[in-house]
Amino acid sequence: MENLTDHQQKILNQLFSKYGKTDPLEDFKRILKIYFDILIKEDDKLIMSIFCKIIENKLYFVVQKDFRFYSFEYYKEKYKEQLQDFLEDIPDSIESDFIEKCIKDQKSILNNTIKLYYQLKDYSPIDVLKFVSEDFFDEYKSTAKRKIEFLQNNLHSISISNIDLNPYPNLFVSREVYNGFMIYVSNYIVEPYIDYSYLKKRLENDGLTHRITDKKFMLFIYEELNLISEKMYFHFLDKDKFRSLRKSNSTHRENKFNLVFDS
Question: What is the pTM of this model?
Fold first, then answer.
């Protein structure tokens, strides 16, 4: 380039690697560090334009490691693995929550609003996609549309399954558990506060229900299932929470539970 100022030349010398072929990820980190150390307040349009072009070129290698940018076939292959990570990281979440998040991510690729935060050691996280041109996303948009279709099909399948098999999938892990729950409450609730304490805690302990707070469960059996009266509901609320499994356990309750849920 001709007619560069000394300042411009000095910065460009640092931006361009002097060592020939380098590891793209390491070079990306090197250039991003230059941004934090030198360019974060730079207002020279030429310098920033060149910086953005370099960082965009390196970003192709970075986004390959991000699930949202995986190729379509690899995305489908890794779907279950990513879903499992999501469910483990976010308590009380279900597959439809994950799907809705993924659809939102793919739509943000289509409208160029997706963010990708990257953090160098000793530096604050930064959205590195703010440096790229709109053209950067073009090669990912057709794949994003196919991913959305794939995700919507999964969501539709879950909805049909939930309607047919499990009326409350956010709580019960299966229709069978829901059926057992209704059998138990219809036949073996004698002392409501203690009996419901044991039932909720035992179901959670055995992995038959998703964990929710005691107050949400109280509201659920009162408002959604109409299993307790308003007076009983407020009595439960006065208690603030249910008894623990240990404190609500009895031989009678354990036997009745096993009879219903182990049969």
Answer: 0.58
